[in-house]
Write the structure tokens for this entry.
Amino acid sequence: MAHDLQVVVAIFVPLALACAIGWIIYGRRLAARGAAAGPAAKPAGNGAAARSESNASLPAAAAPSPVRELADAILSGQRRALSRGITLVESGHPRDRAAAAGLVQAVFADAGGAIRIGISGPPGVGKSTFAEAIGLHAIAQGKRVAVLAVDPSSTISGGSILGDKTRMERLGRSDSAYIRPSPSGGLHGGIARGVRESVTLCEAAGFDVVLIETMGVGQAELAVREVVDLVALLVQPGGGDNLQGIKRGIVEIADFVLVNKADGDLKRPADLSVGEYKRALRLMSPPSESWRPEVFACSAVEGTGIDHAWARIAAFDAATTKDGTRDSARARQAADAVWGYVNLALREALQEVRAEPQSPAAGWEAEVRAGRMAPAAAAITLLDMVRDGRSLSGTPK
Ligand SMILES: Nc1nc2c(ncn2[C@@H]2O[C@H](COP(=O)(O)OP(=O)(O)O)[C@@H](O)[C@H]2O)c(=O)[nH]1
Ligand SMILES: [Mg+2]
């Protein structure tokens, strides 16, 4: 039937249901764990606060749901299940939203254990090559590495971009690696839609390093900051003191600026660029209170500087974990994300209402378009209607 204000409210019912299902499933697992192996001895992750004693007494769910089965398969480290899970959280379709939220909630207490690294920088700078090099290095140190990359060749206009290495063949052959190229069609600010959830699923599947390669274009790059612990910005070597057209804002969110391609003829220009970026960064405020951004050169192709990069990333992780800034940043990111989802769901619900020609919402918009009403006044009128619970739909029930 027609949409009215209840559409807005109805959006939250599936979400709330999903959370409830997650709690129930979680409680069941806790109870099972408690019976089998005593108290769980996992390191604190996402679910540190959620792991309260009282959950163990939650009622058991009747039958294993498809979402529960998928969650269990992910938790047992099955790659195909992880891929299916990521497809679900990337879907963006309102129909999949409750299942996606339920899945993430079902594995949430087992996530949080990875170091989350954003790899940013313009197209062609070597992000994928670097991700592969540092991924292989981390694996050699005994880590399991997941890479979430936006595949730029999947854009309609893009075609293949500068010998793009999204597939990362060498890394892909390792049993300790998981590579997920996401189509850039579903982009949500330079990173794949649902990437926060994908990180959670990768962590639940047991990966201890999650690399997120961004698409590398424009201000959208800033979005990656919201889902990672640290950002490594890759830049090209080159003279000139204009930071080579890199947007200042993007340099400002970087914990590391890596001048890549420091090999062959580019070695010397790379070293000069390191000095320039160091000088530039001194004038900017660092993204984290407990870490001064570092600049150094590397060659992802030759592998030079990769061990140093990994050592410094490990130092960043150790410092920010110890002083609590990593967890407080994660807490803030998570809280902000709640409002991001609420904004999105509300906007979608209101768009639906707006699409109905008979609705007062559409009427107010027409008034604005005709120049009879100021946009701010129309917005307040609509928000008042929402607050008062009045129908925004034109078709009475
Ligand atoms: N000389 C040199 N070329 C590199 C290096 N890293 C990447 N490349 C090349 O730069 C091109 C783009 O690399 P890619 O990793 O796909 O860049 P992305 O678009 O930032 O992911 C490829 O042809 C790479 O072989 C490097 O350290 N040195
Ligand atoms: Mg790439």
Remarks:
- Residues 1-5, 7-44, 47-58, 155-163 have pLDDT under 50 and may be disordered.
